[in-house]
User: Fold this.
Amino acid sequence: MAECTRKEIAQLLHAYELGFLSNEDRARVEHHLLECDHCFQETVKNAEAIRLMKFDSETRRQIHEVTHETAGTARATEHRPLWRSALPILVAVGIAFLLVLKDWRIDIRPSESVMADENRLAILPFENLVQMPDGSRLGEVVTNLLITDLSQSSSLRVVSSQYLYDLTTRLRASTTSPDEDIAKPLAESAKARWLLTGAITQITPELVVTAQLVDVSSGTIKAAVQTSSLGDIAVFQMVDSLSAKIRQALFQPTGATPSAARTIADITTTSVEAYQEYIRGVDLYRKLYFSDAEQHFRKAIAFDTAFAIPYYYLSMIVPGAEGRAFLAAAVKFSDGAGPRELYLIRSRAARQANRRDEVLNLLNAFVERFPDEKEPLFQLAIAQYSQGAYIEAVKHLQEAIALDSAYGPAYNQLAYTYDQLDDLESAIRAIDRYIALSPNEANPYDSRGDIYARNGKMDQAIESYRLALRLKPDLYNPLSNLGMMYLFKLDYMRAESCFVAAAQSANAANRASARLGLCYLPAYQGHFRETLQRTDSAMRADSADAAIGIPGKLWFKAIIYETIGRLDSASAALVQSISSGETTAWSYKVAHLVRLMARAGDTDEARRWTDSLRHAAPSSEVAAVQSWIAEGSLLAVADSTQDSALSLFERAARRSGVFSDQLPLAQAYLDFQNPAKAVPILEKLSSTFTVARQFYVTESVKLYYYLGRAYDGLHWDDKAVIQYRTFLTIWQTADSGLVEVAHAKDRLAALENRP
Assistant:
């Protein structure tokens, strides 16, 4: 591996890992890590020492005492050149690392073992030494159940199956022989004092399992056990028996008293079939094949209706009322979940209820409880991303990648996060790493298509979506997104073929969404009577299918009614959508309703709806942003409060980059005779192709008209002509009576006839 040539950045790696850098320098280092394999591998090597400094209280205390003054100097020099600001930081980092390496003797070279935790146990996958029934994954089931069972003990730290899998993959890649025994180096890499291996030796007439507990440092067998059981719940009885014997072997000679453990069936399921379906579902979910994973999770709860964790995953996949019902079931049965699963379920429930602080508190506790696992870090990053804390999300995604340099989903989320930070180059590098890791999976190509589409690169987006579909032709997202791209390219025939194919999805929510996609086609062309007829037909199909999608289509009808000037019909459709009980996008709908009522002069009712948003704002970031837009919409209709309206729209646009949160500000700038400020917003929106823009389909077309007006107001005649022509080309066969079409024709004629 080539040495790094950017020494001024390489010397900041330790400071970056400890969180000492300014935002500017941290961004430079993160950008560099995506380019430089040498520095990236250095961060992986140092991960063990970094985690000790982060999570060991005594270590943190000593480091703080010694480095406090030095770190303060670093902050004071934040705006100096990179090499100067590095000097005090490097002193602090050097002291910190010397403390750790001196007092705890942690050797971070990968070729030598690190000091093992006294009560840390690694459980290798149990071997199937007998012929298994078709599709059976009994060895994997036993291993995962044992990990879950033993993780209940506060006196014993059990290495997660995912972390072991990641370490195994890394070690296998570095061995010269596929037959080489990596058990001992695997346990050493995991810092495990104890190693448990086992095998399924018999399945009929009774299930027989053997296992041995080994002291990793000496190779001495601490305990060798065999257990067997009969009947439908033999696996669970056998796992409980093994767990009890392992606890006895580990704790009794030392006089320690292990915490009381519930049976494994109490914290998972009583059905082997349910657990096997759950494992299959998780495998597919990690590849982001959600529709396929959904089928296995549904089978799992069909085998055992009280199995909590499949309900959690279903709540992540299935939208609407059914998804909320799945989450409620996960919470209901959460007493029957293991410690890791409890964090996932409770944080998901808090997120659903918009309890932002509780979400972060739970996930930070999750990270602290399992500091060497990537999943807690990934979930924390997802929560931070959803709350707009993109810098913090990048940090935790990088930490997850340091634990597993082949962690594809982290690279995937990292790409989207960099895109939100307007760092396209880093976003593409992150997604290209994901593609390199998983070249035969469809999702990385689908995600790259999203990144390109968000940045106006339609042709590259189309090619990426096509690559995803070559690998998995029935994958809904790239198929639907490809239809969206063809819509924006005015290739309506191809767009329709994509949405028709997507409507054949096995997932009811996908079918409903594809039917809405078919409604976009006439709307984008300005054929609104046809659009309303097609939307009503789609709603009837939704009602006959699974009743998913109807509230969204009512909202879509409101957009169409608003476009043709029927404000009362638009408000009625939105009220019906809000009253349906579907809470998805509730805040957006209410803000839209307030805007409609304000324009129609019904300000008293609009204020009542605005108050409901304001009441929800303290517990919801989205509600807060929408309350500002609602209040701004009310103020915008009164001439004396235009400055206050602009202030609220600007506040919302700074907080959210969503299409519908940016557009009101641009429209206000136009209406209040400030086209110069409207131009950059409209240029950005008109070159961004997203699902949100597609939904506001008529405003998506009118962007070109708005931009023409803005250029016109600045007397940029040539640019104004191009935008007016583009707008009129799209709506050349639109229904009659549209004010914007008439105005665009008049202005275009005036500009073209101007000397």
